[in-house]
Design a protein that fits this description.
CATH class of the largest domain: Alpha Beta
Shape: globular
Structural class: alpha/beta
CATH architecture of the largest domain: 3-Layer(aba) Sandwich
Helix content: 10-25%
CATH superfamily of the largest domain: QueA-like
Number of helices: 6
Number of domains: 2
Order of helices and strands: EEEEEEEEEEHEHEEHEHEEHHE
Strand order of the largest sheet: 2-1-17-16-14-3-12-13-15
Radius of gyration: 20 Å
Length: 341
């Protein structure tokens, strides 16, 4: 399989730049993964597609305001720092721009001195290990000084940073939102529960590797980024119960899907635990536990298009995407949704 096998034409004006006022009013394309047939609904109608006994699995990670703008202490030159991965209490792996002038031993000052950073090392991929120095609580300082790390294809300023969070976001740690979950409101989730669907939370902290392009023509040569996940004993028990009693396991987003497939054994049982996953799902993969997926429309030639192609078939996905383009669906993080079942 080559990278070109997962390409499609997308007019730039279909990339959604702003979230809708009503989260649940996005359009929803419903795709039958067996036949390839599609039909359209409004996202809040997802409740009609779910059955009593199903298990809807959401990712309760919370996006941190991970983009910081500061100055080099030595020269006053402007620096942008993007927090990627927490290595220890005050040590983070970061993306730094401009990187060439930020060498080990250098210091960066943010917010007039409220936060200071010492560059510890330069990694093989050019990222920096940075130790942060401050007084008080890091998360509170970050909330004051940091900005939401919106994807590079969103050029509009986000007026309300809560719109890049799901309504069920709970655990700090992501550099990007699990965007399929942005369509849900608390009212819609309650309506789903009232129907007899179990809504279960798991956690995967989304890294910026989500947006890293695949650069190898042979997709099997692509190295996936790793992300930290957690599945509690309660969540594992509830998901397994749904499977045992004939319910479907429906993942909300590719992050939930990757977590479930990482934590499942070959018999289709979820195991509690936490750790790092670099699972790469592409056509030919045999799903162990995920029966259906709620997801957004993804970038051409991305690992996420490969994942949905593994679930529904490459031709079915590309045909659905062509229809979505023709019918002027909105694409990517703030765009419309797809339900693959």
């Amino acid at each position: 399989m080559t990278l070109q096998d997962f390409d499609y034409d997308l007019p730039e004006e279909l990339i959604a730049q702003d979230p809708l006022e009503d989260r649940s009013s996005s359009r929803l394309m419903i795709l039958d993964k067996t036949s390839g047939e599609t039909r359209e609904a409004v996202f809040r109608d997802i409740v009609n597609e779910l059955n009593p006994g199903d298990c809807l699995v959401i990712n309760d990670t919370k996006v941190i305001p991970a983009r910081l703008f500061g100055e080099r202490k030595e020269t006053g030159g402007h620096v942008e720092v993007l927090l990627l991965k927490r290595e220890a209490d005050n040590v983070w792996e970061c993306l730094v721009r401009p990187g060439k002038k930020c060498r080990p031993g250098g210091r960066i000052v943010f917010g007039g001195g409220k936060l200071e950073a010492e560059i510890l090392s330069v990694e093989e991929d050019g990222n920096r290990k940075i130790r942060f120095l401050y007084e008080g609580i890091f998360e509170e300082i970050l909330d004051e000084l940091g900005q939401m790390p919106l994807p590079p294809y969103i050029t509009h300023e986000l007026k309300d940073k809560n719109r890049y969070q799901t309504v069920y976001a709970k655990y700090d740690g992501s550099a990007a939102a699990p965007t399929a979950g942005l369509h849900f409101t608390q009212e819609l989730l309650q309506e789903i529960r009232d129907k007899g669907v179990d809504v279960v939370s798991i956690t995967l902290h989304v890294g910026l590797g989500t947006f890293r392009p695949v650069k190898t023509e042979n997709i099997l040569e692509h190295h996936m980024h790793s992300e930290y996940y957690m599945v509690t004993p309660e969540a594992a028990g509830r998901i397994n119960h749904a499977r045992e009693t004939g319910g479907r396991v429906i993942a909300v987003g590719t992050t939930s899907c990757r977590t479930l497939e990482s934590a499942a054994d070959e018999a289709g049982r979820i195991h509690e635990g936490s750790g790092w996953t670099d699972i790469f799902i592409y056509p030919g993969y045999r799903f162990k536990i995920v029966d259906a997926l709620i997801t957004n429309f993804h970038l051409p030639k991305s690992t996420l298009v490969m994942l949905v192609s593994a679930l529904a078939g490459r031709e079915h996905i590309l045909n659905a995407y062509r229809k979505a383009v023709a019918e002027r669906f909105r694409f990517f993080s703030f765009g419309d949704a797809m339900f693959i079942h």
